[in-house]
Amino acid sequence: MVNAADVIVIGGGPAGVAAAVELRRRGVERVMLLEREADLGGATRHCGHSPFGMREFGRVYSGPAYARRLTVEAERHGVTVRAGHSVVSLHDEARLTVACNGVVSQFEAERIIVATGAREASRAARLLPGGRPVGVLSTGALQGYVTLHGLMPFRRPVILGSELVTFSAVLTCLRHGARPAAVVEALPYALARAPASWFPGLVGVPFFRGATLLDIQGGARVESVRIGHGDKTRDIACDGVLVTGHFVPETSLFLSSGMGLAQGARAPAIDQDGRCANPLYFACGNVLRAVETGGWAFREGRAIGAAVARDLAQPRAMRRQDPPRVPVAFEQPIKLVVPGYVRAEDAAAGALGEFQLRFIARVRGELSLELDGVRVWARRGEFLPERRVLVPMPAALHAARHIAFRFGEG
Ligand SMILES: Cc1cc2nc3c(=O)[nH]c(=O)nc-3n(C[C@H](O)[C@H](O)[C@H](O)COP(=O)(O)OP(=O)(O)OC[C@H]3O[C@@H](n4cnc5c(N)ncnc54)[C@H](O)[C@@H]3O)c2cc1C
Questions:
Q1: Mean per-residue pLDDT, 311-336
Q2: Domain limits, the chain
Q3: What is the mean pLDDT of the chain?
């Protein structure tokens, strides 16, 4: 049997729920949300702390309460939610293969929105040295244990990283009876902005910047780590290691289905309406670029949901047209640009009013945008990795045949 809808959204985190709700609000009849977990909420379900929801709902929620609010919103707006449904492949003609309770079936729609989020890079992907004792976890795994199962696996972990999620890990430990032995960041500065980066100091947890993990030691379980800090080495006694951040977009579906990814971002390339190279597919949220806040993912989902509703409101004959795409060129030290290309005809009315850029390293110099070789925007300053840089889309974008971001150091 084939399950059909007007639009199918894959992923029930903030981005996917916001897209599905917006489609219903704009009169799209059959909107189906497929979520592989038992409940909606995505990464927010595990974050037992605030703040979530201020911008989108005008009040502050903890992660689990925010996830419940998303569930209520989906129900209230008549979204057909299919929890426990894992999408296992995407097909060119907006058809999906989906597994649920050991049964595989086909789902199809006029449009598909992919909102599968991001995940933290594993220990192996980060090439961390040392032995393999039990007790090395990601923040997502820790928060899953604590929030979903009431288990705290550590008393005194060492936490690696300095992104926002790192400080979420510190908070989770403190709230659930563990006291981190240290926070360790390889860079000489914190990746998250202050005041989040002040948090370890405020709660008396040593924060080593510019420190390299040299070894994870222990028999059956982690007993200590060795770090290099300046010209010294230091052993820190601990009972676990939390590897935080280094998010990567959850793009397994795109890769296994032979759909290409954007330069740098390791994410699907989209245009200014969130539309992928295959114009029947759209994407929003952290799958586009790791990693954003819940509020950002929600707003992006809502904007892309609106764009899909506009697309479906066109006469059927117009819908499948695929105007020429102009790629947005860039080179390192720029890491990624979202959207990765512009579809010329509708640039002025796009869902995303800004380009988002990230840098691969801390750099100082001038960032500029050129349209057909003419500089239309520039900003001088210092740019840090994993910090979003927003560049407004100029009106002339829709007519440009060459779009390029340039960076000159100095
Ligand atoms: C530890 C931690 C702490 C955080 N703290 C904060 C905070 O305090 N404030 C804040 O604003 N943000 C916070 N964030 C960020 C916020 O949670 C994310 O930005 C937000 O959840 C991203 O939304 P999303 O919809 O893009 O993806 P996600 O929330 O990751 O949702 C993606 C969904 O897709 C589903 N999925 C994936 N693949 C498939 C498939 N093949 N089939 C079906 N379903 C699939 C997943 O199960 C998941 O439910 C935190 C994140 C983490 C990890």
A1: 85
A2: 1-121+246-322, 122-245, 324-410
A3: 92
Q: Find the mean pLDDT for residues 109-130.
A: 91
Q: Residue 62 in contact with residue 34, Cβ under 8 Å?
A: no
Q: Which of 398, 114, 116 is nearest to 280 (CA)?
A: 114
Spatial contact of 33 and 82, defined as CB atoms under 8 Å apart: yes
Distances (CA, A) of 75 to 33, 68, 266: 11, 11, 33
Strands 157-160 and 86-91: what pairing? unpaired
Any idea which fold 1-121+246-322 has? Answer: FAD/NAD(P)-binding domain (3.50.50)
Upper half-sphere CA count for residue 204 (Cβ side, 13 Å):
2
Residue 34 near residue 85 (C-beta atoms within 8 A): yes
Give the model's confidence band at 347: pLDDT under 50 very low, under 70 low, under 90 confident, else very high.
very low
Helix spans in 10-138 (H) = 14-25, 54-57, 63-76
Q: In terms of pLDDT, which residue wins out, 350 or 115?
A: 115
CB 36: neighbour CB atoms within 10 A? 18
248: exposed, middle or buried (C-beta count within 10 Å: 0-12, 13-18, 19+)?
middle
CATH architecture of 324-410: Sandwich (2.60)
302 in Cβ contact with 360 (< 8 Å): no
Tell me how crowded residue 327 is: count the other CB atoms within 10 A of its CB. 16
Q: How confident is the model at residue 79 (pLDDT cuts 50, 70, 90)?
A: very high
Residues with CB under 6 A from ligand 1: 10-16, 34-37, 42-44, 47, 51-52, 86-87, 115-117, 139-140, 143, 165, 168, 250, 253, 285-286, 292-295, 297
Count, in order, helices (H) and strands (E) of the chain: 10, 25
Atom of ligand 1 nearest to the CA of 15: 25
In percent, the amount of the chain with pLDDT more than 90 equals 79
- Two domains, one topology: 122-245 and 324-410: no
| Ligand 1 centroid distance, CA of 212 (Å) | 29
- Reference 120, options 216, 249, 237; nearest CA is 249
Architecture of the 122-245 domain: 3-Layer(bba) Sandwich (3.50)
* Phi and psi torsions of 38, nearest 5°: -75, -20
| Lowest model confidence (mean pLDDT) among 93-107, 247-261, 317-331 | 317-331
